[in-house]
Each structure stands twice: as structure tokens, then as C-alpha cells.
Amino acid sequence: MPAAAGCPSIRVDLLRHGETALSGFCGRIDTKLTRQGRLQMHVATRHGGPWDAIVTSPLRRCASFAEALAVETGLSIEYEPRFAEYHFGQWEGRTAEQIWCEEPASLDRFWRDPWQFTPPGAEAMESFATRVARGWDDLLGRHAGRRILLVTHAGVIRMVWHLCDRLPRRDFLRMQVGHASLHALVVPATKGVT
């Protein structure tokens, strides 16, 4: 979406972390990237940019690559905990297949509408939306007129797209966000979501 005339815009390239050592719902588990995951992220950013700064989730699967890229490019780096992944509660560290075998009705309800069903001990989707929205608004305010690389997670990328009116709530979990996928957004720097 182009910015209005005279209104500074911001371009944010949202990069999901690459393959991790843990499969399944990683959420807040601080797992690391595999060698393949690091390679995926290097390939994804090889022809990207130029960026003015890097903002990253503090979780290791994002921050380790962001730190290496910052050293390589000389860019500043910001750690933003509001861009950490959704907390899956008791589902953390488990695969969808494992959950399906033990509690298929719960997993089905979550896939159908994560706003209406919260996994046991997990973050409520409204709380997640509020957290990401506040981080997004702050990012827009700090970086007007710049191009930013945001290294983050699939849930955060989906939520940003949803908050920017590019992803209807009913399609939230249908949006494909593969490992090391890059998703570009251009928005007016003054267009907050909260």
C-alpha cells in the first residue's frame, strides 16, 4: 500500500527464522537454528535490503541470525520482546500429530478459530494481538521513512498482516509462512494499529 502524499512511509521486511533444532510448536522455547536454518536465512536475505536497521525477536532462533547479519552489514540491531512468538502453553515442544493423538477436539478448535480457543496454559490470542500491535506501533514511530528488517516468527508475521488489514481473522492460520520466508509491507509511518 503506497503512503499518502507528504506522509512518510516505512517498509518492513518481515523474515521468519529458518529451520530449528526442534520441530512442532516451539513458541517460547528458545531453540536454536540448524545449519540448514542459517543457510535458509542467508539465502532469503542475500538480495534483500538495503535496510536501515534490524529489529529482532530476542529468541535465539531469530536473534542469532540477526546479530550475524548486523555484524556483516554494520547495521544497528534492536531486540524487541513484543515480537517473540505466541506462547503455546502446554503444547510447547509438541508436534501437531502428538496433540492430535491426545486431544484432537482441542487441536481442531484451535485450528478453526484461535481467538475462540486457547490451548491449556497458552497466551490468549487477544493478548498476543495487543502485544504485537504495541510493538508494531512503536516500530512505526521509531523508524518513519526507513526500511527495516524484522526477524521474527510465523505467528508474529501473521498477526502483523492481520493488524494491517491484509489477513482476515478467519484466514489467520491458513496464511503460509515457511521457514526463512520474507514478507514485505509498506505502510504510512503514522498508521498505527492500536
In CATH's first tier, which class applies? Alpha Beta
Beta-strand content estimate: 5-15%
What order do the helices and strands follow? EHEHEHHHEHE
Strand order of the largest sheet: 3-2-4-1-5
Q: What percent of the residues sit in helical stretches (DSSP H or I)? A: 25-40%
| CA-based gyration radius | 17 Å
Which CATH architecture would you pick? 3-Layer(aba) Sandwich
For the sheet with most strands, the description reads: 5 strands, mixed
Protein name: Putative phosphoserine phosphatase 2
Keywords: Hydrolase
Pfam families: His_Phos_1 (PF00300)
Enzyme class: hydrolase
Quick description:
By secondary structure, this protein is α/β, with parallel strands linked by helices. The protein is built from six helices and five strands, in the order βαβαβαααβαβ. It has a single domain, classed as 3-Layer(aba) Sandwich (Rossmann fold), CATH 3.40.50.1240.
